[in-house]
Design a protein that fits this description.
InterPro entries: Tctex-1-like, Tctex-1-like_sf. Belongs to the dynein light chain Tctex-type family. By secondary structure, the protein is of the alpha+beta class. It has helices spanning 4-19, 26-47, and strands spanning 51-61, 75-78, 83-90, 94-104, 114-117.
């Protein structure tokens, strides 16, 4: 299973390359965000093909005024074989909040091992 450090390194490299110094544009941020999620997924699958990956990313503009974003995630799975991480990436004018779900696609042996996290 990929470690949190491995996943964060992939996220940082992909998002930095795509968006770290770009000025914010709504139209462009939508394309950048889509490309970044696709690239992160492709790299993780290449490195660890025995897992399924679900990646969400919300990208938004950094501003001096009041702004905010609430994100919540719930998982129900076998904690010993599956994992999730949330990571905040920050560029010069954009921030992205990512949730990465890593799910072992082999059959679950025992329902008692399933856990619910909120």
């Amino acid at each position: 299973m990929p470690t949190r450090e491995e996943i964060v390194a992939v996220i940082q490299e992909v998002y930095h390359r795509a968006a770290a110094t770009k000025p914010y544009s709504f139209e462009e941020s939508t394309q950048i965000n889509k490309k970044c999620v696709e690239d992160v997924t492709a790299i993780l699958v290449e490195k660890n093909p025995n897992y399924k990956y679900i990646i969400t990313s919300a990208m938004f503009r950094l501003s001096g005024g009041d702004s905010g974003l609430g994100v919540s995630t719930v998982t129900y799975w076998e904690a010993g074989r599956d994992q999730t991480i949330t990571y905040r990436w920050e560029g010069r004018e954009m921030t992205a909040i990512l949730n990465v779900f890593i799910v072992n696609h082999q059959a679950v042996d025992d329902q008692r091992n399933l856990q619910h996290y909120a």
